[in-house]
Amino acid sequence: MCKVCKLLEMDRELVSFLVEHGALPAFKEQDERISEIEERLAQRLVRLQVGLESLFIQRLRELGYIPLSILEQETFIADILDPIFADMEEEIAEAAVESAVVARQLTFEEILEQGLEAVFTEFSERVLEELRERVYVFSDDTFRRIKGDFRATLIRGYEEGKGIDDIAVDLRADFQDLRDHRLRTIARTEVQGAQNIGIVQTMQDYNVRYKQWLTVRDSRVRGRNPKDRADHYSLHGQVVRMDERFSNGLMHPLDRSGPIEEWINCRCRCRPYIPKKGEAIIRTPYYP
Predict the structure, then answer these.
(1) Domain of life, per the record (predicted)?
(2) How far apart are CA 180 and CA 88, in angstroms?
(3) Distance between CA atoms of residues 35 and 175, nearest Å
(4) What is the pLDDT of residues 111-163, one digit of tens each?
């Protein structure tokens, strides 16, 4: 076993030991309210795309040829997909705000549980609007990648000498992947991302000094499988300062400043960590 692999395995064993002996928080199940928001959003996104596949292929057949220039390809795809994607962005933004509001309530409860006296306040309209704008930026980037994938299918079909009927078969596969996987991944990533943004904003509002990474207790937590490109399992319970990155380089779970494998489809969250009386945090990252 390589040296890095040994270290990762030691981290995983340490986390498991500390959890079992009460030194770290138990692996948190996802809050039911967040799960419901995620599922409702996924269902809405799937409903919005109904008929989109047929429309795309119909327009391609009406055109009668494969668009060749980049501009013509992008215009053709945007004319069909952009109106639906705009509706999806609205749905995503509303779900994100709802998720952040729930996260604020959960975080405030955790602050009280850890002994900090505070009075609950709602997010300001400015904060909620900033969250919406951030979600729109994320959504634009996601839908731009999806449009790029459809464009790649058209280019590949042309280069392989396929006719429109054969390319339609490839497009149907793209739309099936969109329905079955990508829209659900978008729903999970956006809702979980908004939850963590809401958590961080709440901790900042209440002047919390430290944050702690929590994972969900199941076999899908990245790092449980040696083939995973990211390891969140060994991050469970890790504490850092509010202005500090966790050891994987992220400021919080689903922080998109990191590599995509660290945040896409992630279900982790952070929580406030308030040192107990007499507990001194000398250096971070820190495991209680």
Answers:
(1) Bacteria
(2) 16
(3) 25
(4) 999 988 899 999 999 999 999 999 999 999 999 999 999 999 999 999 999 99
DSSP secondary structure code for residue 255 in this structure:
-
Please give the structure tokens belonging to residue 224. 């449980």
User: 204, 242 in Cβ contact below 8 A?
Assistant: yes
Q: At what angle do helices 183-205 and 125-159 cross, to 10 degrees?
A: 150
Assess whether pLDDT exceeds 50 at residue 273: yes
Query: Tokens 């309530």 correspond to what residue?
Result: 105
Neighbours of 187 (CB within 10 A): 24
The contacts of residue 111 (CB under 8 Å, 6+ apart) are 118, 202, 203, 206, 208, 272, 274
Residues 137, 120: contact at Cβ < 8 Å? no
Q: What is the pLDDT of residues 221-236, one digit of tens each?
A: 888 888 888 999 889 9
Q: What is the pTM of this model?
A: 0.85
Per-domain boundaries in the chain:
1-30+209-288, 31-208
**CA–CA distance, 76 with 67 (Å, rounded to integer):** 8
